[in-house]
Design brief:
Length: 160
Amino acid sequence: MHFKRFAHFAVFAALALPAVAQAQAGPVRYGAYYDETISGSCSSAAVSCAGSFSALPSDKMTTIQRIHCNFTSNVPMARARFGVSTTSGGAALPREIALPLSIANTMHINGSWYAATDTDTQWLVGQGRFPFAEIFTNQSSVSGFTCTLIGTLSDPIPGQ
């Protein structure tokens, strides 16, 4: 009897929770290796959709070696970028990398547009920064993404 009551409560609680726009398991850190995968969607009608990674380690510099993203949208995508901010979801620092979306990688299937990018960056980023990936369209859209960044960690130079 108690299990049945608990099961009903669990189902009700799960249905009452709001939808989460972004999901991530957290970064993987092993020796000098670092990676993180995020996924999410932007359901509000906007011309951009961004996903923030967790803060990079506060005790190490991170060389972002590769960023791989799969994007979907209900309208054609115009461009994508990889950037860094000092706070989660904060304003971008004046450094970014364009993520190429070639025509060959953009497909229109059953009413949705799909694009992928796999970019070798070799980009050094400071401790505790928040990397993000962002897709842009030329009109209001509903977009989604899955992105993975892969990097290596190194000790900062003392005094700098």
